[in-house]
Design goal:
The complex is a heterodimer. Chain A has helices spanning 40-47, 88-98, 103-116, 132-144, 162-177, 189-195, 213-219, 265-272, 288-297; strands at 2-11, 14-24, 29-33, 55-60, 63-64, 73-76, 150-154, 181-186, 198-203, 206-212, 224-230, 241-249, 252-259, 277-283. Chain A is an alpha/beta fold. Chain A folds into two domains: 2-218, Rossmann fold (3-Layer(aba) Sandwich), CATH 3.40.50; 220-297, Alpha-Beta Plaits, CATH 3.30.70. In chain A, a hairpin with a 2-residue loop joins strand 12 and strand 13. In chain A, helix 2 crosses helix 3 (103-116) and helix 2 (88-98) runs parallel beside helix 4 (132-144). The longest helix of chain A is centred in the middle third of the chain and has 16 residues, at 162-177. Chain B is an alpha/beta fold. Chain B has two domains: 51-153, D-Maltodextrin-Binding Protein, domain 2, CATH 3.40.190.10; 189-252 and 259-443, no CATH class. Chain B is 66% helix and 7% strand. Chain B has helices at residues 2-16, 19-47, 82-88, 121-142, 147-153, 175-209, 212-217, 222-259, 262-271, 282-291, 293-304, 307-335, 343-366, 371-376, 383-390, 397-425, 435-443, and strands at 52-58, 73-77, 96-100, 112-115, 161-164, 170-173. In chain B, helix 2 (19-47) runs parallel beside helix 8 (222-259). The chains are: A alpha/beta, B alpha/beta. The interface between A and B is medium-sized, with 32 and 25 residues.
Chain lengths: 298, 446
């Protein structure tokens, strides 16, 4: 639904985006990853039409990105705030009217979301009377109220307590199930693995990696497994795998190994099962965090 | 366009609903009306002022002619010693003792005015004027001028200033009234532009520091946000101005009816144009001019000035000037992170405003048709103040039209200029802005 093609953005002496291209599929959650200052926000500002690229183009639903698309995109910036002196209800109403909703429709939807997110009595409160986490909830509601097709969330969970973070996460998943596409910009990898279908990794203004999370992770598999068992077995003349690490723990022995030649995990299990009792067996897949760090360090 | 309207609506309503706005709007006319009432009250009190009774002890051998009483001071010649009179002053119905020693007529010295209270400047002036007149009359008579000629010499002059209007028709005007109106208009314009310009700047800074700007900017164009804010706040100013005018007039009217009885009101109205010549002397004219002359005259002339026209044009210039300067203030607000950083940028914006204020109230009021006045009222940086100051003196239609056209072009220019800085500035955090930086922003592509 969104395709970013060869975007270049230059700020005076600093090149914020250097020939960045990516594809966001409809109905997916897309993770835009990268360390601080990599160019994530610059890219988002181009997608939300706050700035324009120096070259390259953005295609939204098959059309060149234009002013009509503004109302179909919801954006929750990382640096977010609200008018301090304004009442919550009035404020969300104002923001959603700017997105093209009528007063009646907006009021109806605000009431719906207030009920849903336990914000029932907040309408007449002022922003300055709310905690930071509460303000984030208000901002989240303001972002999604106009039913955008594409929602861009920049570091959405910073500032949330675990309970509210979970609440928001569930709302995101629910909206996603209904067909809303998301772009997540973050440098927190845990949330990426939980939520994202696809990612792109940006570092120093360039895209250095992209693809489906599962694909990326499996491409970083290197036939390493972890097994824990009780019992004794001699590994000294086994040519199935190479032992990377062995330690004795309370519940038994913990072994990390890497398969050699064309052997599979099944071969290892077949060899082990008669000899010891196995507590657990897993493949060691590098986390997104590892992949991220590995790439950024390069 | 619809979005700009929404922004205007929010900026307008959020300010008009504020307590400070409501208090300011209602308190100011009450204060103005109060002052107005006080002035009228005192000017009437001046008319009805109790007459100072002065006991004159004349030991002068040359000055035998008696001082003539007038409506402010009565002189009564007594034949007593100063010591005696001083002692009994508390009991007597005299307020002051005037002691005229036997001075040399060429250099009058040693004259004393002794009172229960210290004599005020006005009384001091009145008494010394009386004595001076007396000495002059004596000298004139001594040089052979008869009493009849002397009376004939004294004449009361009251100038009626007139100007030829655009239509060639003669209009009554008064330099005094024009100056008063010009002064008030100039001060008001300066105040309004400053006040509401700074409000725009604060609004922009508030949006920046509260980070709402990032949310706003994903729904509206920076230009829309800036224009909405500027126009919304200008409308707040306009509302305040109109309310002030309406409230001031209505409160003043009721204040006048409370403070002033009908007779007094008549007296005020007529006092300027008609001074009853009970005893037409120099003192009389001066006294009249001091107490009730200017007020009556100004009131009279204000009636002759076309206030409706002045207020309408004031509003045009207020909107033009406010938009012109507010755009610049918005640019400043967008460039900084907090109000404390605004100082260095405020200077260049304040300078033309201060300059036009200072020049308008000195040079322009002195010579409202001169070159300086003309150019000040054409340059859009100074025209809002300079033109409203010139207005009461009468400005040719073509000058007015040209100046308004230039002002409109001017604010389109500043809005365009400011918008280019604003769109970059609002998204810049933590960067210390400088003029160099702002020039760079100006040339940024979108």
């Amino acid at each position: 639904m969104l395709s970013v093609r060869n975007i270049v953005k230059q700020y005076a002496s600093h090149r914020a985006l250097d020939d960045v291209s990516l594809e966001v599929e409809r109905g997916k959650i897309f993770g835009l990853l990268g360390p601080n200052g990599a160019g994530k926000t610059s890219l988002i500002r181009i997608i939300t039409q706050i700035t324009a690229p120096d070259s390259g183009e953005v295609i939204f639903n098959g059309q060149q990105l234009n002013a009509n698309h503004i109302n179909r995109i919801g954006y929750l910036p990382e640096e977010r705030g609200l008018y301090k002196k304004m009442q919550i209800g009035e404020q969300i109403l104002y923001l959603s009217k700017l997105k093209g909703l009528s007063t009646a429709e907006a009021t109806k939807r605000i009431k719906y979301w207030f009920d849903k997110l336990d914000m029932g009595s907040w309408w007449n409160k002022k922003v300055e009377d709310l905690s930071k986490g509460m303000q984030q909830k208000v901002q989240f509601v303001a972002t999604i109220l106009h039913n955008p097709e594409l929602i861009i969330l920049d570091e959405p969970f910073s500032g949330f307590d675990p309970v509210n973070a979970d609440l928001i996460k569930n709302e995101i998943l629910e909206l996603n199930a209904q067909g809303t596409t998301f772009i997540f910009s973050t440098h927190r990898m845990e949330s990426v693995e939980e939520l994202c279908d696809n990612i792109a990794l940006i570092d120093k203004s360039k895209k250095i990696l992209d693809g489906a999370v599962t694909d990326i992770k499996s491409s970083y598999r290197n036939n390493t497994y972890c097994i824990e068992f009780t019992g004794k077995v001699d590994f000294s003349n086994i040519d199935l795998f190479e032992v990377l690490e062995k330690k004795d723990v309370k519940s038994g022995t913990n072994l990390k190994f890497k398969l050699i030649r064309d052997y599979t995990a099944n071969d290892v299990l077949a060899y082990m099962i008669p000899k010891v009792s196995i507590n657990h067996f897993t493949e060691v897949i590098p986390s997104m965090n590892d992949i991220f760090i590995e790439h950024v360090k390069k | 366009m619809n979005k700009i309207l929404l922004i205007i609506q929010r900026e307008y309503l959020s300010r008009v609903k504020k307590k400070s706005f409501i208090v300011m709007t209602f308190l100011t006319p009450i204060i103005i009306a109060g002052f107005y009432g006080l002035i009228i009250y005192f000017s009437i009190k001046g008319i009805n002022d109790k007459i100072d009774k002065v006991a004159v002890i004349n030991e002068n051998k040359t000055l035998t002619e008696e001082l003539t009483s007038n409506k402010n001071v009565t002189y009564e010649y007594v034949d007593e010693s100063v010591q005696n009179l001083k002692k009994n002053l508390g009991k007597s119905d005299f307020d002051y003792i005037l002691y005229l020693p036997d001075f040399d007529i060429e250099s009058p010295k040693g004259i004393e005015l002794i009172g229960k209270k210290q004599a005020g400047l006005t009384l001091d002036g009145r008494v010394s004027d009386s004595i001076e007149d007396l000495i002059r009359d004596y000298k004139l008579k001594k040089s052979g001028i008869s009493q009849a000629d002397l009376d004939h010499l004294k004449s009361k002059v009251n100038i009626i200033t007139k100007k030829i209007g655009d239509t060639g028709r003669e209009e009554n005007s008064s330099a005094g009234a024009s100056t008063v109106i010009a002064f008030v208009a100039g001060v008001l314009m300066f105040m309004f532009i400053m006040l509401y310009g700074v409000q725009v700047m604060r609004g922009v800074i508030e949006e920046k520091t509260s980070r709402i700007i990032e949310i706003m900017i994903s729904s509206v164009k920076p230009f829309q946000l800036m224009m909405g804010k500027i126009i919304g706040i200008a409308l707040v100013g306009l509302t305040q101005f109109l309310l002030w005018i309406i409230l001031t007039f209505s409160i003043s009217a009721s204040a006048v009816s409370v403070f002033v009885s009908k007779d007094d009101a008549k007296k005020i109205a007529t006092s300027g144009s008609q001074i009853t010549p009970v005893n037409p002397g120099a003192q009389q004219i001066q006294a009249a001019a001091l107490s009730d002359g200017p007020l009556g005259k100004v009131q009279q002339s204000i009636k002759n000035l076309d206030l409706g026209k002045i207020i309408t044009i004031f509003i045009v210039y207020f909107l033009g000037g406010d938009l012109f300067y507010s755009a610049l203030y918005a640019a400043i607000g967008s460039a900084v992170d907090s109000e404390t950083e605004t100082q260095q940028f405020m200077m260049p914006v304040m300078m033309p405003l201060l300059l036009s204020y200072a020049l308008s109230l000195s040079v322009v009021t002195n010579d409202p048709y001169g070159n300086v006045a003309f150019w000040l009222s054409m340059i859009p940086f100074t025209s809002p103040i300079a033109m409203v100051v010139r207005l009461p003196y009468g400005v040719p239609g073509w000058e007015l039209a040209l100046s308004i056209v230039i002002l409109i072009a001017g604010f389109i220019g500043t809005v365009w200029f400011a918008a280019r800085i604003y769109r970059v500035g609002i998204l810049m955090y933590g960067k210390k802005a400088s003029f160099k930086e702002m020039v760079k922003w100006f040339w940024y592509k979108n």
